[in-house]
Target: S-layer homology domain-containing protein
Amino acid sequence: MKKNLSIVLTSAMALSMFSSVAFGKTSSDFTDLSHLDAATKAKFDAMISVGIFDGMTESTFGLKSQMNRAQFAKVAAMILNLPINASLRVSSFTDVSTYDQANGYALPYIEALKTAGITNGVSDGAYNPAGEVTKEELATFLIRILGKDAEAGNKTLTDGSVSNWAKGYVALALNLKLLPETIGAFEGQMPATRELLVTGAYEAKQQYIPGKIALVSAQTIGASKVKVWFNQTVDKTKATLTLSKGTLNVPVTVTWSDDGKWATLLTSSPISEGEYTAAISGLDASTVSRNEVYFRAQAEQVTEINFVNPEETIANSSAATIRVKAMNQYGETASLGTSGFTAIVAGSAPADFKKDEWGNLVIIANVKDANTSQMNDYLPVTVYVNNSKLTAARSFKVGNAPVLSFIEPNKITYSNMKTRLIDVGDKASISLKLFDQYGNPIIKRQFDQNEVTSKSLTPIVSPENPNLEIVKAGTSLGTADLFDENGNARFEVRLTAKPLNDSTHKITIYSEASHATVSVDVN
Model:
C-alpha cells in the first residue's frame, strides 16, 4: 500500500469492541439517524453505545460528514483495542496538539497508532489530523480486518477511479458487501463518510473469525531493522519470520519480544528502497488468519551531520583528529561510508578520511601544512553529503602541539579466547584510547612524527607477580610495540609460569599527565 496513512490493520483484537453495551447514547439521540431502518439503527447502536463514535453535536451524528484523520485514529485505535494513554499532553507529531480545538482530543489515539506501528504520519514529522480518509483507504482497512490481503491480491478491478494499489481491496470489499454497491465509478479517492465507516466496520465484524493469529503490520525502524507486530502472543519456538523484496529473500536475524507479540528483523546490510513482504510460517495454518504483511521501505538517508569534538580547539599537529557524526532518519548513526561524503580542510582534501569503530566520520587534518600559527589562527573545515544540500562547517582554533593528557582503557582481549590467563604464554591485550589536551584522539601518525612520545608510558602490576610480565614498557617501548597493525594502541601482559593460586591483578598505565587501570585475572 502506497499511502502515507499506513492503515496496516487487522482485527483479531476487534470483536469485543463491537458488542452492544447498555450505556451512553444510541441512534435515537441523533435527529439525522431517525430515518434509518431498524437493522441499520442496530448497527449504529453497536458502535455508538461503546463510545467508538460520538455525534458531531449533542443531537446530530453527522451521517454524511467527511471523516478526517483525527476521527479515523480514534475509531481505529478503539476497534483494535489498543492501549490508550489518556494522560498524554505532548505528541511526537509536530501538528498534533491538545490546543487544537477541533482535533486535539485525538492525540492519545494518534500516539497509540504510532506506538503500534500502524502509522508514521505523512511527512516531516507531521500527522495531518484534519486530512481526509478516502473510500479506498477505508476498503483496505476493512479487508485487513478480515486478514484477507492475499485474497485481495488476486482480485482485479477495471474502475479507473480507484488507485492501482487499492483495486484488489475495493473489489473484495464490494464482493463481501462490506461497502454498498455503487452505480458507476466507485470514486475511491473521494473522502469516506462517517456512515460508510460505521456500516462497513459493522459488516466486517459479522464476517470476522475470532481467535486467530494475524500479522498486524511491519515497518522499518532502522537502516537495517524491521519491526513486525501481531494481534496476540505467538509461539516463538514454532514461528519462523522471513523478509522478502519481490522474489528475493532477505536474510534476517530475528529477536522476539518477551511477550511474543512483536519481533525485530535485523538485516546484514542497510535496507534498500522498495516494496517488502514480512511473513510468518511454522504455525498451524488453521490458527492463522493473516500470515504476511506488505510495507514500503525508504532507503537510509542522512538527515543530520554534526561535529563532535569536545572543544573548538585542535592541536597544532600533522595529524589532528576531527570527528563528525552523521545521523539517519531513524536517529541512528548513519551507515553510509566516507565515499558518500566530502570533507574539505582549509580548501583542500584532508590527510585522511575514514570511519571509526563507533561509526563517526574521522578527518585527519595536517594543521602544520595549513600555514596557521598556534593560538592565533583558525582552521576551516566543511563536510557535506554527496548529492545532497546537507552541510556542516566549523572553524577550529589552532592550539599548541599535542600532549598525551588522558588515557582510557577500552577492552581486554585474551589470546586463549577466555576471560583470564591460564597457561604459560597466554597473553592479555589491553586496548587503549589516547587523548590530547583538547580531548581529541591521539593516533599512531603523531607518534611516528615524534609529536608525541611513547616512552613516557609505564605500566605497573599490582600486586606484583613475577609470573606476570609486561611485554614491553618504559624506554624500551617503541611505537611499533604500542600500536597494533590496525593502528590501535594497546599493552600486552603475558603469563610466564603456571600460577599456584587464582589471583586478580590491577594493571595501571601511567603517563606524564594521566593514568588508567584495568584488572586482569589469573587462574
User: Anything to note?
Assistant: Residues 194-207 form the longest helix (14 residues). The CA atoms of residues 39 and 45 lie 10 Å apart.
